[in-house]
Amino acid sequence: MAVMILTVGISTGFQGEVRAKVTGAGAHIEIVPLSQSDVNESSRVRIDQPFYPWLDTVPGIAHIQIFALKPGIVETDEDIQGVVVKGVGADHDWTFLQRHLIAGTVLSIGDSVRPQVLISNWMAKRLRRVLGDELTVYLIKGREDIRPRKYQITGIYETGLEKVDHQVVYVDIGHIQRFAQWGLQAEIAASDAVTGKGIAIEGLAFGGDGDFSYDWPGTSLYGKGPHTICTRKDTTLMLVVSDNAGALPDTAWVTIRPKAGMADSPCIAYASTDIIRRTSGGSYKDYCGGFEVSLKDYRDLATMDDLIYRDYLGAGLRTVTVRQKFPEIFSWLELLDTNVVVVILLMVIVAIINMTSALLIIILERTNMIGVLKALGTGNRTIRRIFLIDAAYIMGIGIILGDVLGIGLALIQKQFGLARLPIESYYVDQVPVDLSLWPILALNIGVLVVCVLALVLPSMYVSRIAPAKAIRFE
């Protein structure tokens, strides 16, 4: 009984712990574009979706957050390492990583003064970096566009999952949004006009597919320019840039303000004005690589995946479950269920053999009593019932002692973690134990019922005992 309780508790605890790590490092379900073919590089999708951010109000869904992925290379003076750069937003749930931080803090999203990065303990040792050091990360776009970014290491984590610890570094999603140029960035340049009279303004655009359209609302201007502006009063011009790839347009403004005493000139020169330029900040911030959805219960994974895909996703989006991302880990966890079944069957068979032997010994020891009972008119069924009750009583004592031993050992392991494991191989550094009431009750009732039913056959030996010979049996 103790072996069975420990087997079920350790197996359930191990499966739950590994599943929690896999889903904690990512999510139960990812919502990504249909066009995404590389699991390590995100395609763009608009953040403004009908299901975001209120999807976590649906029963069964705990949280939804944006993310983006880009391949990269981290570099030090001595070594380089290929990584997956994961950008996270202000809505990121840090509960899992905070639990696995071994130094520092999580990222401060939106801190433009000090770019931050969160790396694993394995990577920190490999790159010989410590908390507070500078780390150069090369972001990769296509085969030719590789750009370095310098970050300060603000936190070091360790999950025990090789696919996470050996690959993933966390940064603010804004760095990836700007680097990937998923949106457009509009700017207006101002300079002296070629004729020497007036001001030349020119539209500038970045990102998108490179094929830009320039619109100057409220004016007769057309195209990029440069355009000559002749004015002697405060003038504000607006530029709207769009492309052919469907990126959200971006807007920029320029205000031409004559300096004091220059308003009498019909065409004010560039040097005689104050130029004030403004932008909307770029439409890249309106895109992400996808959405991560966390569930309240892993057992609802298939049901919630179907629900989200059927009822909430629009055209061009699909779902990817954690089982699809890590099939080898979940196949390995399912093999543990087979091990549990084998152990329980072996223990039940051993219990049946032992109790069968004990019952036969008890019957032989009570042969005289059986003879007397039969001589007094007691039926075989009643005598068999007496011995089965006696066997059940013996088994009950054994089951209770097994419960005490098994639960006791499990509680000691859960409290003190005496049995350790290599985290590189098992994803956990100690044997996890899950003590749930219903599995233990099911084991107790199941073992008692199965063993008692198995003893019915050997108890039939009672019917073969003749009263006359039994009374004389020595």
Mean pLDDT: 86
Largest sheet: 10 strands, mixed
Helix content: 25-40%
Coarse shape: elongated
Determine the strand fraction and express it as a percent band.
25-35%
User: What gap, in angstroms, lies between the N and C termini?
Assistant: 36 Å
Number of strands: 19
Can you tell me the number of structural domains?
3
Radius of gyration: 37 Å
Low-confidence stretches: none
- Specify the structural class: alpha+beta
Q: In DSSP terms, counting alpha (H) and pi (I) runs of 4 or more, how many helices?
A: 14
How would you describe this protein?
Strand 14 and strand 15 form a beta hairpin. The protein has helices at residues 2-25, 95-99, 121-127, 162-165, 173-180, 301-311, 322-325, 327-365, 367-375, 380-416, 423-426, 437-454, 456-459, 467-471; strands at residues 29-33, 45-46, 61-75, 80-88, 101-104, 116-120, 134-141, 145-157, 168-172, 184-192, 199-207, 212-215, 227-229, 235-243, 250-258, 273-279, 287-288, 290-295, 317-321. It folds into three domains: 35-181 and 286-315, no CATH class; 184-280; 333-471, no CATH class. By secondary structure, it is α+β, with helices and mostly antiparallel strands. The strands form four sheets. Strands 1, 3, 4, 5, 6, 7, 8, 9, 18 and 19 form a ten-stranded mixed beta sheet that branches. It has a four-stranded antiparallel beta sheet with strand order 12-14-15-16, with no helix packed on it. The protein has a three-stranded antiparallel beta sheet with strand order 10-11-13, with no helix packed on it. It contains 14 helices and 19 strands.
